């Protein structure tokens, strides 16, 4: 998947962060989380990058990834 540049830059600077109840996973945790949630088969073109409380934070592959709220 093509990662948005903002996400790549965040990982390059912090490799994960926790702020305002949102956790962005370190790069080494992302493949395992996506495998566990079976994101590729359930939401093609998206991947899990973190969590907000118990809800996954999803990012859409590509240059632009709008932010959506959901109750997943």
User: What is the string of SSEs from the N terminus onward?
Assistant: HEEHHEE
Overall, the morphology is globular
**What portion of the residues fall into strands of 2 or more residues?**
25-35%
The radius of gyration computed from the alpha-carbon positions, rounded to a whole number of angstroms, is 11 Å
> Within the largest sheet, what's the order of strands?
1-2-3-4
> How many strands?
4
Terminus-to-terminus distance: 22 Å
Number of helices: 3
List low-confidence stretches: none
Keywords:
single chain; 72 residues; four-stranded antiparallel beta sheet; 3 helices; 4 strands; 29% helix
Q: Could you give a quick summary of the protein structure above?
A:
The chain contains 3 helices and 4 strands, in the order αββααββ.
Structure, explained:
By secondary structure, the chain is α+β, with helices and mostly antiparallel strands. The protein contains three helices and four strands. The protein has helices spanning 5-13, 30-37, 39-42, and strands spanning 17-19, 22-24, 46-52, 55-60. A four-stranded antiparallel beta sheet has the order 1-2-3-4, with helices on one face. Strand 3 and strand 4 (55-60) form a beta hairpin. The mean pLDDT is 84.
